[in-house]
Backbone:
């Protein structure tokens, strides 16, 4: 008979935990971005792969570097830096010089994420902020859109929203082309279909809640519908579809606005967040200086997230009437 | 103000506008909440089922018929096997005791007497650390293995009224066998008996691995039904529910068949989703009656008497045989146990004797649990004795005993989605970390029943449920009510 006394682990219950940890969660999101990556490689060529790999590796390197400098345990293994790198690559034109991309990675990981305390402590989405930093700092490079493989004419050089911002409704690509992704634009935002597949995968695996994407895309659609019906420009339904398919709405709604850290915790907060993103996007697109407003709208709502979260004090089970 | 003028923009106005918008949405939200209020002032959650998590069932021993373990070489019977005042030993060193003889009792209201599970000689009365962390008095008995039955064990006469029934239940030493070990006699004697109409038998057994309740339902069906009938008769209850998770279809079928054979139509089985924690008292009341049960409220206040299936079965068993609660059915499982099985062991048997009966350890155990993996206690030594409310002993190898490293919260909100009572564990954990008693109280930390769903689901492996337990003591110390 052997007795065991001093080598037993005594810990608090529960004694089992789910396999879906942070690393697995991040891996799921990376997997969900793969269809979009494949479409992008097809549309813009192999340089897409180069940019994506460089960006992921650079982000992981900066994360490792910071941890090493701060003498902390390395958090590269949780894959959140890899995901940030992938999203930054998805937000730049395929022709962007690599050194500019690395500046974006540096600002995302060091400035936006680690200076605020690392994963879970950042106020705003690192990838979105990196895009905005690059967009403002390198305006020319960030708006030089390479020709997509199936470019039929010169107008394809610009993004669909860029064409719209020039004030012409006639040269817009068809909604079907937008849906499939055969248009100009940032690396990962071109194919709404591929992003939708990834988004549905995440919702099915219960990684993200459908509330933010639904409110975001729904608001953009309704806003556009009302605007074009009121101003009488074009066919309202076609234009509303154009606005949700063009630009970064799908990428933003499914992959950036749903970032756990920088979006509200409770469902009611998520509704406010999604609607806010949609309204800001359309306001910037229709009346703003820039043709595209998704990244600015998400950044804006990121800043409001703590306010939204503290506002919605959820009533708990059995809570008495006050 | 200076800043707002600097940019030529009135930030205060913008802030007011933002709050205004939030205020409007809150008014709408409150209007919806008002519609959901029931007459009794509680919120109808507006959903059919409370949130739950899916934990792998691991019901490996469901097909293992219970075996009776031979009497071990030593038993140590704890004097504190129930919630409430511990018993005082009625025997001294050197005394000879028989099976079923009362060896511990107290005059305290919330208590139950303790009986000897073996016949033999008392070799000492010692103090030892209990699984809960405190010190218990243990009566150590060296069994003579003759199992002589005490004269005290008599088949009870049919009770004339509720008072006699309750006295008999107390005499049998029956406590809640689901885990809480609340003296059952008190549960059967509610203050508001006129408002109590239902019996709920909790046979959900939502903890992974454990199958002892399942085996009881299949093996002791007659005692279970007898127990239900007795309770319903003396407490004047109209209807009984036996709530079973739908991962035990054989038990549901078996009980339905038995009820039909007896021609009983006021007891029925109630099928629950096989998710964790459907077997928690307050969750069960919601699932069956759709009523919200607050922390600290008794089932009787919700109009029902709610007991674990083993408790009810023991009541039936006692009135049939007169044998008090001296043995317990246990599931012995885990990857460090050679032959997982269900065993009936005398109360007071040491954990390592139980495991030796199950073939011993397959490999070196690194974690031994009393109870299931979700709410069970990890014990520091396998020399602890079995107490009344044990229903499982699980031993795990190094690989499974590993405590996962806690990483940073990513605000995913899964803990909140998993919580049956819609608490926000991540906010509670933040409040705990800064020792903010008021925030803990406002976030309803006292509603937490420590089911562990939040800790289970947390991708960062934070000990959220444990922090709530500690948070409750912070609130208690601060004296906030």
Residues:
């Amino acid at each position: 008979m052997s007795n065991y006394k001093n080598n037993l682990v005594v810990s608090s219950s529960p004694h089992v935990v789910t396999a879906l940890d942070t690393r697995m969660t991040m891996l799921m999101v990376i997997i969900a971005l793969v269809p979009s990556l494949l479409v992008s490689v097809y549309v813009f060529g192999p340089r897409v792969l180069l940019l994506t790999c460089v960006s992921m590796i650079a982000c992981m390197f900066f994360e490792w570097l910071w941890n090493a400098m701060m003498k902390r345990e390395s958090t590269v293994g949780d894959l959140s830096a890899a995901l940030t790198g992938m999203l930054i690559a998805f937000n730049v034109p395929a022709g962007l010089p690599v050194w500019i991309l690395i500046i974006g990675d540096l600002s995302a990981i060091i400035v936006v994420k680690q200076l605020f305390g690392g994963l879970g402590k950042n106020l705003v989405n690192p990838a979105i902020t990196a895009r905005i930093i690059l967009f403002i700092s390198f305006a020319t490079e960030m708006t030089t859109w390479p020709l997509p493989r199936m470019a039929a004419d010169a107008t394809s050089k610009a993004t669909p929203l860029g064409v719209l911002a020039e004030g012409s409704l006639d040269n817009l690509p068809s909604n079907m082309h937008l849906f499939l992704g055969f248009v100009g634009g940032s690396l990962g935002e071109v194919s709404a279909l591929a992003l939708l597949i990834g988004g549905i995968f995440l919702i099915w695996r219960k990684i993200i809640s459908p509330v933010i994407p639904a409110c975001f895309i729904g608001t953009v659609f309704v806003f556009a519908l009302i605007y074009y019906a009121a101003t009488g420009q074009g066919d309202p339904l076609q234009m509303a579809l154009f606005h949700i398919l063009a630009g970064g709405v799908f990428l933003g709604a499914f992959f950036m606005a749903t970032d756990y850290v920088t979006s509200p915790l409770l469902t009611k907060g998520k509704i406010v967040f999604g609607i806010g993103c949609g309204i800001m996007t359309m306001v910037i697109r229709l009346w703003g200086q820039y043709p595209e407003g998704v990244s600015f709208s998400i950044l804006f709502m990121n800043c409001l997230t703590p306010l939204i979260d503290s506002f919605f004090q959820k009533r708990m089970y059995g809570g008495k009437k006050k | 103000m200076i800043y707002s003028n600097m940019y030529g923009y009135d930030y205060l106005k913008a802030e007011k506008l933002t709050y205004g918008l939030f205020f409007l949405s809150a008014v709408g939200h409150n209007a919806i909440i008002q519609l959901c209020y029931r007459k009794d002032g509680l919120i109808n959650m507006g959903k059919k089922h409370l949130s739950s998590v899916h934990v792998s069932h691991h019901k490996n021993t469901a097909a293992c018929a219970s075996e009776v373990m031979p009497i071990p070489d030593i038993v140590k019977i704890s004097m504190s096997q129930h919630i409430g005042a511990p018993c005082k030993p009625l025997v001294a060193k050197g005394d000879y005791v028989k099976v079923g003889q009362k060896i511990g009792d107290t005059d305290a209201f919330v208590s139950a007497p303790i009986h000897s599970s073996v016949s033999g000689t008392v070799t000492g009365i010692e103090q030892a650390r209990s699984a809960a962390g405190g010190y218990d008095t243990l009566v150590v008995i060296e069994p003579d293995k003759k199992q002589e039955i005490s004269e005290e064990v008599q088949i009870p006469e049919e009770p004339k009224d509720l008072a006699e029934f309750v006295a008999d239940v107390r005499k049998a030493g029956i406590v809640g066998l689901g885990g809480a070990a609340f003296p059952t006699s008190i549960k059967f004697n509610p203050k508001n008996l006129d408002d109590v109409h239902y019996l709920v038998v909790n046979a959900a057994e939502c903890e992974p691995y454990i199958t002892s309740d399942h085996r009881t339902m299949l093996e002791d069906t007659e005692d279970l039904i007898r127990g239900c009938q007795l309770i319903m008769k003396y407490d004047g209850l109209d209807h009984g529910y036996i709530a079973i998770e739908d991962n035990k279809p054989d038990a549901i079928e078996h009980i339905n068949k038995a009820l039909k054979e007896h021609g009983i139509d006021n007891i029925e089985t109630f099928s629950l989703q096989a998710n964790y924690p459907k077997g928690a008292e307050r969750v069960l009341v919601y699932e069956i009656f759709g009523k919200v049960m607050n922390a600290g409220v008794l089932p009787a206040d919700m109009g029902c008497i709610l007991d674990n299936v083993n408790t009810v079965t023991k009541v039936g068993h006692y009135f049939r045989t007169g044998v008090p609660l001296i043995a317990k059915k246990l599931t012995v499982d885990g990857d460090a146990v050679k032959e997982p099985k269900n065993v009936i062991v005398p109360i007071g048997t040491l954990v390592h004797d139980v495991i030796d009966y199950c073939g011993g350890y397959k490999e070196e155990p690194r974690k031994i649990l009393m109870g299931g993996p979700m709410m069970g206690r990890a014990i520091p030594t396998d020399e602890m004795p079995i107490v009344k409310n044990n229903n499982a002993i699980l031993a795990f190898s190094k690989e499974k005993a590993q405590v996962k490293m806690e990483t940073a919260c990513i605000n995913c909100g899964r803990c909140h989605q998993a919580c049956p009572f819609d608490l926000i564990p991540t906010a509670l954990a933040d409040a705990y970390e800064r020792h903010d008693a008021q925030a803990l109280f406002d976030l309803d930390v006292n509603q937490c029943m420590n089911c562990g769903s939040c800790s289970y689901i947390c991708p960062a492996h934070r000990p959220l449920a444990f922090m709530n337990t500690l948070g409750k003591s912070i609130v208690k110390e601060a004296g906030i009510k």
Remarks:
- Residues 1-11, 33-44 of chain B have pLDDT under 50 and may be disordered.
